Amino acid sequence: MSSTVLEVTRAAHEEVERLERLIVKELQNDPASNKERLYQSHRVRNMIDTITSTTEKLVRLAYY
User: Fold this and answer.
1) For position 2, what pLDDT does the model report?
2) Cα–Cα distance between 28 and 25 in angstroms, integer?
3) Both ends of the chain: CA-CA distance in Å?
4) What is the pTM of this model?
5) Buried (b) or exposed (e) across 8-39, using 16+ Cβ within 10 A?
6) I need a labelling partner for 30 at 20 to 30 A (CA). Which of 7, 43, 53, 59 fits?
7) 5 Cβ contact partners less than 8 Å away, ≥ 6 residues apart
8) How far is it, in rounded angstroms, from Cα 11 to Cα 13?
9) Are 47 and 22 in contact (CB under 8 A)?
10) What whole-number distance in Å separates Cα of residue 10 and Cα of residue 8?
């Protein structure tokens, strides 16, 4: 059972790290128009929301 929790924890940490790298890569691109800037903002916000929910899952696992 603990190896399953360990694997879930590892996968969640990897997901957070992957999303952090994607955010950095996304923000390195300078949008050409306001519309593209808005789309970029939405993509980054979606990734941040995913990081937040994954981190909440990790916190719940810590108390398991």
Assistant:
1) 58
2) 5
3) 11
4) 0.88
5) eeeebeebbeebeeebeeeeeeeeeeeeeeee
6) 53
7) 61, 64
8) 5
9) yes
10) 5
Measured over all CA atoms, what is the biggest interatomic distance in the chain, rounded to whole angstroms? 51
For 3-48, write each residue's pLDDT tens digit.
Answer: 788 899 999 999 999 999 999 999 999 999 999 999 999 999 999 9
Residue located via tokens 């691109």: 29
For the chain, what's the residue count? 64
3-state secondary structure the chain: CHHHHHHHHHHHHHHHHHHHHHHHHHHHCCCCCHHHHHHHHHHHHHHHHHHHHHHHHHHHHHCC
